[in-house]
Amino acid sequence: MCGIVGYVGPRPSQDILLAGLARLEYRGYDSAGIAVIDESGDLGMRKKAGKLSVLRDSLGDATLAAGSTGIGHTRWATHGGPTDENAHPHLADDDKLAVIHNGIIENFAVLRDELLADGVAFLSETDTEVAAALLGREYRETGDLEKAFRNVVNRLEGAFTLLALHQDQPGLVVGARRNSPLVIGLGEGENFLGSDVAAFVEHTRNALAIGQDQIVSITPDAVTVTDFAGTPVEPEPFEVSWDAAAADKGGWSSFMAKEVSEQPEAIANTIRGRLQDGQVVIPELDGLDDLFVGINRVIITACGTASYAALVGKYAIEQWARVPVDVELAHEFRYRDPVIGDDTLVVSISQSGETMDTLMAVKYARERGARTLSICNTQGATIPRESDAVVYTHAGPEVAVASTKAFSAQITALLLLGLHMGRVRGTVADASTDVAELQALPDKIARVLNEEQEHVAQLARWMADTRSVLFLGRHVGYPIALEGALKLKEISYIHAEGFAAGELKHGPIALIEPGQPVFVLVPSPRHSALVHSKVVSNIQEIRARGARVIVVAEEGDAAVLPYADEVIHIPLAGAMFEPVLAVVPLQIFAMALATAKGLDVDQPRNLAKSVTVE
């Protein structure tokens, strides 16, 4: 969750660090700090609870001395509340050593007791200060930051990324990662470290991926990577496929508004290069035909919004590839001893590729002999590297915490995967109609944005004082009902629930009272007249009890008009493609309602973009 930046080079590191942290604000945080070794060789540090602006104001009052070596951090509180004392960096070795940390050190209590017995006094409640104190003690014994760092990380348990610098060794930043993200940025006469490429993409798009249990040392002219035992490692290079401008608002009122509007482009990019001669062919999956033919089961594992994309993927893969699919929440998956083996394909979904629960599920699956495939939006991330294959969504950077374009791109990638598997398994003889549907999705989403955005936004403004909203859907509409409710909860902080419409009479209908707003996702009668009629019956049931019904239905569906207070139209689409269109009005609604309440739609309270702890 935390943001991490490291820099060595000729430029003032304070400016580099603050700009990098600003690009990492989307990750979610509650305090910020930097440490810089100045030109006279002294280490200066400043940290503050609150947003990055608080730290900037503090530095404006009394700036740190200029220096070309530095580390910066935005913290999301785990051990200890969001206070100045608990903010990073933490100092040791008579304030000559600074450490920042992302993750959780699980054995910190034992180490803390050891250090207390050694006479160490602690100033914070954090597990990070324990690592700093250990590193300070090791440095006093070795006089070598890299050697001391290696000795310390081998004693730590849990998930962590650590960065450290020492004023006795200016021009050097050392980092390590275990189950937590860290990437290297390669510049000319300067080098960078970041928890995300956004930390340095303004300066370079050339990057190196650091693997599990590896240590990196950067100087202005060199990068060295070893494993925790000290054996040299050749890191994997990659080029960031977007530039810094892609992560700017570009005149939009919020990143979320920008990203909602970017969905046509995101989906077009996800599809691009994966359609050949009227069929879906995913080049990244070349050579895996035997795997797809041989599997007897697919498990899709994910968390939050990605798990709702997975539910849509279940319908698509089962229909096209004719193989049973289970959807598992990643944080439950490995704790219940699931039955998996070499005939199981485990598909993981993560926008960041660093979601810790999902990463642990992937590792668990591999340990038990399953083959693994990831769907991810972030190059150089851990989950793709831990998987046998990866399908990148190419949605571009998503900065707002509440996912929108990444969700649509994930569904699109799952549709592609289902059709690819269907072709390989021989269960889809002619995919030309579905390929045409895929190609039409970007234009259809653009139509929804152009034709319904103001209508939906006005509806949200009228409902700004609403205390509860319900969402109903059947078939592929059910996951979209769940996602619509989650979006509203995430950014407007009001009660919202999504239900399978058929469950109404089994309990949820008790919530219906006069005036209760209910969104109903109505499937096309062209695909299943039976399912459509069932949903219309559900509408009648809640309308009879006084609900205010807002219907999302395809254009031309006259059957819903007598029973709806409001109708939001989406273009005609195939059954499996409707979810990508139907979710857009729900995203707009949540965003507009939260904005009407004066809330920050990009950084909702208590949430982080990349959840890198279990």
Automatic annotation (TrEMBL):
MF terms in GO: glutamine-fructose-6-phosphate transaminase (isomerizing) activity
Class of this enzyme: transferase
UniProt function note: Catalyzes the first step in hexosamine metabolism, converting fructose-6P into glucosamine-6P using glutamine as a nitrogen source.
CDD domains named among the record's database cross-references: GFAT (cd00714), SIS_GlmS_GlmD_1 (cd05008), SIS_GlmS_GlmD_2 (cd05009)
Species of origin: Microbacterium istanbulense
Database matches in SUPFAM superfamilies: N-terminal nucleophile aminohydrolases (Ntn hydrolases), SIS domain
Domain SIS: residue ranges: 288-427, 459-604
Record protein name field: Glutamine--fructose-6-phosphate aminotransferase [isomerizing]
NCBIfam families named in the record: glmS, PRK00331.1
Keyword rRNA processing appears in the UniProt entry: no
Gene behind the chain: glmS
Any Pfam family the entry gives: GATase_6
